[in-house]
Amino acid sequence: GAYYATLAATPYALMHLALGRITQHSPWNSFTHSPPVDARHQAIVRPSPDLLYSACPFDLSAGPLEVRAWPIPGHYSSISVFDARTDVAYVRNDEQMAGRPMHLILALAGQAVVPQSGPDAADVVRVSGEKGVVLQRVLLNTPAELPVVDGLRKQARCHPLPR
């Protein structure tokens, strides 16, 4: 019994630890755009030095959250949503979005979300558990591009929907 209880609790414990580390530098429901990874700055285990990471730890207890990120021409980028169990609830990259902005609404089952239509319609992502993290990754082709790419990726937004 203890073995199965440990197996069931481990993903939640890992997410709790990860969110604890992330929220030391990043407020809830808001993106923090980390500097390029080097030996001095390494928030996650074995990060890629070619990727720029942005994280939005979320708490849906007060309502749904809106996430927006824009593609950066000529650069791979992705948005991933990890739920309270560390499961991937959503992932899309720039090729899948075909140049369109990434627009998501994160919500719990039962939270009201007004359906949208049109080219700017958001993907509604239902997650299990109130807390989790949205992770944005952007590939740098060369270190010299950092100032331009960094400015563009910092346009990403993560915020509670107005009530």
Molecular structure report:
- The strands form two sheets. The chain has a five-stranded antiparallel sheet, with helices on both faces.
- The radius of gyration is 16 Å and the shape is globular.
- It contains three helices and nine strands; from the N terminus they run αβββββαβββαβ.
- The chain has helices at 2-22, 94-97, 146-153; strands at 32-33, 51-59, 65-69, 77-82, 88-93, 102-108, 123-127, 131-139, 157-160.
- The model has no long low-confidence stretch (mean pLDDT 85).
Summary, kept brief:
With 163 residues, this protein is an alpha+beta fold.
List the helices and strands and how they pair.
Elements: H1 2-22, E1 32-33, E2 51-59, E3 65-69, E4 77-82, E5 88-93, H2 94-97, E6 102-108, E7 123-127, E8 131-139, H3 146-153, E9 157-160
Features:
163 residues, alpha+beta, five-stranded antiparallel beta sheet, four-stranded mixed beta sheet, globular
Structural class: alpha+beta
Uncertain runs are none
- For the record, give the distance between the C-alpha atoms at the N and C termini, rounded to a whole number: 44 Å
Q: What pattern of helices and strands is seen along the backbone?
A: HEEEEEHEEEHE
For the largest beta-sheet, the strand count, sense and barrel status come to:
5 strands, antiparallel
Q: What's the helix count?
A: 3
Helix content: 10-25%
Anisotropy-based shape: globular
Tell me the total number of β-strands: 9
